[in-house]
Amino acid sequence: MSNPYGSPGNPDDHNGNSGQSGDIPSYGDYAGGDPAQGYGQPQDPGNPYGAYPGGADQQYLGGSMLPGAGVRLGAFIIDAIIIGIVSFIIGLLIGGGLTDDDGNVSTGASILISIIGIVLWLAYRVAMETTRGASLGKMILGLKVVDANGNNLSAQDSFVRNVWYLASNILSMIPFIGWLFSLAIYIALGVTISKDPQKQSFTDKWGKAYVVRSR
Are 76 and 143 in contact (CB under 8 A)? Predict the structure, then answer.
């Protein structure tokens, strides 16, 4: 009994295939992808998820693997507490007395602690993201920062991703209204994370980074 559906290479193929090189390709032909024809990237045999078109691997960008703004804020707060304590201790050690005659923290000490905090923050985040893939706050909450291939960020991309913290602190020093500019940056981060399909903040996009769940 003949095959009513035909087959590749069969002149009587009912799908219209003629057995020549112009046969209609199957879904499997597209799975590997041909970048030159716009069908995506070649699949990695070791990665069952395949390549995400134009972005990170699907194993990182699949649905619940993308944390929202709330949990990322939690990781930020943990990191801020850690850096704040370390900055205060360092300021205390190298800055002499932190209070003036009235028992208030002196202006000079406040500036010193702020500078130390900014430097520590950037050094800490870049070092952790490039070597471990996550800061302590993210580790505690099961998050990780990766590039489009699922690898740790380069030092340059990590710095670009975190430079907003420097800008926020500089703007906060503007008398009277500085805190508004600083607050606007934090709000922009949260809004862009919430609105973006891949949960990237605008600084994540600058650094070509994705924050994903590690567990």
Answer: no
